[in-house]
Amino acid sequence: MQDDYLTIATTRPETLFGDTAVAVNPEDERYSKYIGKMAIVPLTFGRHVPIISDKYVDKDFGTGVLKISPGHDHNDYLLARKLGLPILNVMNKDATLNEVAGLYCGLDRFEARKKLWSDLEETGLAVKKEAYNLRVPRSQRGGEIVEPLISKQWFVTMEPLAEKALKAVEKGELTIMPERFEKIYKHWLSNIKDWCISRQLWWGHRIPVWYIVGKDSEEEYIVARNGEEALEKAQEKYGKHVEIYQDPDVLDTWFSSGLWPFSTLGWPDVSAEDFKRFYPTSILETGHDILFFWVARMVMMGIEFTGTVPFTNVYLHGLIRDSQGRKMSKTLGNVIDPLDTIQEYGTDALRFTLALGTPGQDLNLSVERLASNKAFTNKLWNAGKFILQNLPSKSDLSSWEALSIYKFDTVESLLKLPLAERWVVSKLHILIDTVTSSYDKYFFGDVGRELYDFFWADFADWYIEASKARLYHSESQSRASVAQSVLLYVFGNILKMLHPFMPFVTEELWQALPSREEALMASAWPLTSLPRHVESIKQFENLQALTRSIRNIRAEYSVEPAKRISASIVASSEVIEYISREKEVLALLCRLDLQNMIFTDSAPGNANQSVHIVASEGLEAYLPLADMVDISSEVERLSKRLVKMQAEYDGLMARLSSPSFVEKAPEHIVRGVQEKAREAEEKLTLTRNQLAFLESSVLV
């Protein structure tokens, strides 16, 4: 049998000097006759290794024969431990081969690989060489290929610690958000292995172990808090003249970090003020990628050394990725420098962008998001400037006294306000409850979006614009005062709720507002469960629907922005009552002629020569065409436009009617032309209807 051989495929031939067995699958009939026999390792002067069988070997991978190198492969190491195989290390820490490699001792691993393969070819033992792709572990910093190496290290037995940490979640002592990460937490701890805590690095906490000079370091060592204590223990055991030296290794960074929640607070002195006050804390916020590496280890160590979990809630945020969803790295050149980002977009815009992410969900950071939130910051700033510019002067004591009489914390005081003010204060009070609840649940993304939508869509776009009717177009000082008071009240509460997201701009604006005796960050949170009037919200939404409809018609007929037009508002007496009270607001928002606004319960006499709008159920408007356009000129313009549109539509239909186009053109091109034809047809119909309506108005 000495002339027989087993062919082995390997990408690291230099490790064959550390082979201690050859393994095959017990069900592989090709090699069943060799199981239990011995094989000679090439170029080792006849060293024999056993041929063993194990289901770990994939018979369809490579040749189906596996060389076992326990000293240089993790899986081989585990197999060797299971089967009791010897472990040989052929490599030094500088990646040169050691004396186990015989004649190759001292060679660099890659040099040895080349020489070894050359020698195998020369002796006729090499079968073939072919390209093979595989994942090679590399150093993150230097890029060097990392070699598995057996060495003596310090380990922590983890199962007893993990068991307690698992029970903490099961008993509800620890809550992980989002909830789906509890499954990952449990998976890690249920399948935990002993933890190697020693590292061969220059920086870190030294391993608290001292050895005795002249003694076997594996058998004789001292564990102590410091060198003095170690020496004292050694002298008690070995005499006064004993010499000791500390283990040169340092603790794994995550081991040191795992001690952080209590080691920073005076522990092991549990009577320390900081420890009593701050341990355990309420919440830990960190990235989901270190749930096991840091969070789970803090939990295990906290329970082990203090008897309690270090925090009751864990909030996991996502990772920040580039706009394409890639992890940021120097290699890709896609790292976004926060300092550069702050310089361009502002700190508040960056904070707000990051905080809008969903818990546990990675966030693609794009220029568009940052630019949008910079615009939001600017909008906030400009809203503050508008309010400040429209407040009474500091010396106008009577006006300030008039402002102070308005309160918003009772139903009675709310109902005394005009419709626009009742609406925005009611919406604010609802928002405060919603935002407070979301904050309490750690739904920070929801908080940011709710505040963004209210400030921009409700306060800035609607109420600030509506308030201009009180401030600039009302002869009543009391109406101006109520608007000023509501602007201050709503804006002040917006600043409070936005402050955790955007601390700098909100604090700056808060300090600029009158009568602010304390910093925003020290002010009280807005009260919850304040009154709101649902009916007023519905009424103002009717006003908004009417405004949007009139604006759409103005845009459709290209009415000049500065031009004021007449309008007849038709509704029931109940609707007319509250809409007409806001005629100054409606006129300002829709650019209507205040002197030619009619509120009635039936269609006006010129209805046939007006554009009819149905804003909402029971609320309509008629806008005289003659106020908006020169009808004859508009008919001429639309007629020319219709001819051009018809020609474009006919051209598209001609292409679709051609069998050669439909059958030969790519499918997506055909679909695109079909979509253009549908859009052209819709525009044609709309333009024809508009032209017919104008022509009928001319005839009338």
* Number of H/I helices: 25
**Fraction in helix:** 40-55%
Q: CATH homologous superfamily of the largest domain - what is it?
A: Isoleucyl-tRNA Synthetase, Domain 1
Biggest beta sheet summary: 4 strands, mixed
Tell me the distance between the termini: 114 Å
Number of strands: 20
The number of domains is 5
Mean pLDDT: 91
Commentary on this structure:
- This protein is an alpha/beta fold.
- Helix content is 48%, strand content 12%.
- The strands form 7 sheets. Strands 2-3-1-4 form a 4-stranded mixed β-sheet, with helices on one face. Strands 18-17-20-19 form a 4-stranded mixed β-sheet.
- α3 (159-170) crosses α9 (291-306), α15 (419-440) crosses α19 and α16 runs antiparallel to α17.
Characteristic terms for this protein:
single chain; 700 residues; alpha/beta; Isoleucyl-tRNA Synthetase, domain 2; Rossmann fold; Isoleucyl-tRNA Synthetase, Domain 1; 5 domains; four-stranded mixed sheet; 48% helix; elongated
Q: What is this structure's SSE topology?
A:
Blueprint: E1 21-24, E2 38-40, E3 48-53, E4 65-68, H1 74-83, H2 109-122, E5 155-156, H3 159-170, E6 175-177, H4 181-190, E7 195-196, E8 198-199, E9 209-212, E10 221-223, H5 227-238, E11 244-246, E12 250-251, H6 253-258, H7 260-263, H8 273-278, E13 281-287, H9 291-306, E14 311-317, E15 320-321, H10 338-345, H11 347-355, E16 363-364, H12 367-389, H13 397-404, H14 411-415, H15 419-440, H16 444-472, H17 477-498, H18 503-512, H19 534-556, E17 565-571, H20 573-580, H21 583-590, E18 592-600, E19 610-616, E20 619-624, H22 625-628, H23 631-657, H24 659-664, H25 667-699
Parallel strand pairs: 1-3, 6-14, 13-14, 15-16, 17-18
Antiparallel strand pairs: 1-4, 2-3, 5-7, 8-12, 9-10, 9-11, 17-20, 19-20
Helix pairs in contact: 3-4, 3-9, 10-11, 11-12, 12-16, 12-18, 13-17, 15-16, 15-17, 15-19, 16-17, 16-21, 17-18, 23-25
